[in-house]
Amino acid sequence: MDCMEGLGIISHYYPACPQPELIIGINKHSDGDFITVLLQDHIGGLQVLHHNQWIDVPPKPGSLVLISNDKYISVEHRVLANKVGPRISVACFFSTGASPSSKLYGPIAELLSEDKKGSPVH
Ligand SMILES: O=C(O)CCC(=O)C(=O)O
Ligand SMILES: [Fe+2]
After folding, report:
1. Which residue range or ranges hold the Fe2OG dioxygenase domain (predicted)?
2. pTM of the entire structure?
3. Which domains does the chain have, with CATH numbers?
């Protein structure tokens, strides 16, 4: 649970864009934290890269999006620009804290498949 020691919050405001095909909201990236919890409004635009294809993450009222994959490497994602209206999102980044730590962190053993148990953590 040390991975929850640091919490950073970024609020995004994406203005409506008359020509969204010419620009991107946020370019392709993966988050460097342990897990990101994202609140997005109803506009949409968030996409994740899955098997080399961009997949929409449709907004669902009252829901939060968790950005990670099951091995603690953040999935690549981006946000499209849109002309419908401004889009607002709030991203909470959970990490080990602001200062670099000498602690070595690894996946929770119970969550690993048999063939991954006992392998060194990098
Ligand atoms: O606005 C979004 O939906 C995503 C924001 C994001 O990817 C980030 O802050 O790292
Ligand atoms: Fe992100």
Report:
1. 3-97
2. 0.70
3. 8-116 (2.60.120.330)
